[in-house]
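Predict the 3D structure for this chain.
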Amino acid sequence: MKKYFAELVGTFFLVFFGVGTAVITGGVPGLVGIVGIAFAFGLGLIAAAYAIGPISGCHINPAVSMGAWVAGRLKTADLIGYWVGQFIGATLGALVVYLIAKGVGGGYDLAASGLGQNGFGAGYQGGYSLSSAIIYEFVATLLFVIVILGSTQKCAPSGFAGLVIGLTLVVIHLLGIHITGTSVNPARSFGPAVFVGGQALQQLWVFLLIPTLGGAAAGALFKLKALAAE
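Done. Predicted structure below.
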């Protein structure tokens, strides 16, 4: 249970800092912008990695846990426990961000301003199509989980994985925010969508399914020893 609770806390870290930055300061002229949001997600992950990594490995992402399971690094019971912790942590993180946001002077219009939810199509970010969203989320998650599984192999340099993984997440956000808002993490997408509803919930299947498939594909590459060093 300690591992599952650690995943809850770590995913809360990620959503609170990443989504929170997007909601509170991301749209304010002269403040953080896309680059700042990207670094908020990456630095939030790094903080979580060194805080809970020794307990659970700091997956804080159902797609990462899927990749680890396919690669043979995670038991089925732990996969389920990690997923439960991750989705609860993401939902709590989104809730806290919303509670803070709605205290702004003049009130906060959730329907109009959103909660850092992921999406695609007309009216969302660059207006990219469903096919673009699917391709980006699959490839970005595949590469992200490859970095995670590769940098945490037994023969990989110790102590640097959290930093490398966090910086990779920064790059993924720099490229993807204008496409889908960047998910690569079903839990991160689920938390905000629960509160925003509407289109965010209608499109949620993409961000639950596609990153999970990307993570599984990365895990298969390590299971088949295509990228495994040991």
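Residues 2-223 form a domain with the Glycerol uptake facilitator protein fold (CATH 1.20.1080.10).
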